[in-house]
Write a structure and sequence with these properties.
Length: 286
């Protein structure tokens, strides 16, 4: 499941981070995750755009903050869509805001920047030459995207209208993270990776988890810092303790030291320029 050649509409497909010093951020993440770097800066662009790679496969992007950016360094989540223009229109109709109107990114694709009803920023990606992340769910690559929200019902309604997502609690009690599910996504994974459904069932995954595309977390029920609605990014690592130690040695802040949760051991980190992310080690049930 680590290599991707396409993403169904409605599935998170890319992440990137805006930083005050893109070159320094590239060095940090390269050292932490073992990325090599490709320069994908569009011709004539004043902003550099670097892509971290694993074995030649694109993983994530790093660019510089615009001078008038309203926020500081952060990680951004992109969702695959058939049409960025239609995605932006659906967001407006659902009560969201189009932060940046749809625009072409060279031959790579077309995108728009949206904000949901609470102001959490999410991007949509209409693939051209680039599908987004070509390596996932392995050390140094994206493992999960999570929405942190104050209003779960509003978020469920918004993302359902824009992407067709449904939501259910992972725990029957309703406490803890919920699953954003895209009906039929598990069938797509099964076609590409026969046996994936059986593997999840054997691990004790909750009903519907095979269709999960993102997590939905109530602010205050998770150690992720921040009081405003936002999207967070989780990277897979082979060893969460080692990742936290290495990140600290490179100038990052360990916001939450490694801790155990169902199926994972994870740590929340803030890179040297202030972007927060999670490092997660898969720990299967014994």
């Amino acid at each position: 499941m680590s290599q991707r050649s396409e993403y169904p509409t409605g599935v998170p497909c890319w992440v990137d981070t805006e930083q005050r010093d893109a070159e320094a951020a590239t060095a940090f993440y390269g050292e932490l995750f073992g990325w090599t770097t490709a320069d994908r800066t569009p011709e004539g662009s004043p902003q550099p755009y670097f892509v971290g790679q694993i074995d030649g496969g694109d993983v994530a992007g790093i660019t510089s903050l615009m001078a008038d950016a309203p926020t500081g360094p952060a990680w951004n989540t992109y969702v695959a869509v058939a049409s960025a223009d239609e995605g932006a229109e659906r967001a407006r109709d659902a009560g969201g805001v189009v932060v940046m109107d749809p625009f072409d990114v060279g031959e790579a694709g077309r995108m728009a920047v949206l904000a949901d009803r609470e102001g959490a920023v999410i991007c949509v990606w209409q693939a051209g030459a680039s599908i987004g992340s070509e390596r996932v769910n392995e050390h140094g690559s994206v493992n999960f995207n999570s929405l942190y929200t104050k209003d779960r019902e509003s978020a469920i309604a918004f993302y359902g209208a824009v992407f067709g997502w449904e939501a259910d609690p992972m725990d029957p009690s309703g406490k803890g993270p919920w699953m954003f599910r895209l009906p039929g996504y598990g069938d797509h994974l099964e076609r590409d990776n026969p046996g994936s459904k059986a593997t999840m069932a054997d691990l004790g995954a909750p009903d519907g988890f095979v269709d999960t595309v993102a997590l939905l977390v109530a602010i205050g029920e998770d150690p992720e810092p921040g009081e405003e609605a936002h999207w967070g990014v989780t990277f897979a690592v082979d060893d969460a303790d080692a990742a936290a130690k290495t990140a600290a040695s490179l100038g990052a802040t360990v916001v939450v030291p490694p801790f155990d949760a169902p199926w994972v051991r994870m740590s929340i980190l803030r890179d040297p320029q202030g972007a927060v992310f999670t490092a997660s080690q898969f720990v299967p049930p014994s």
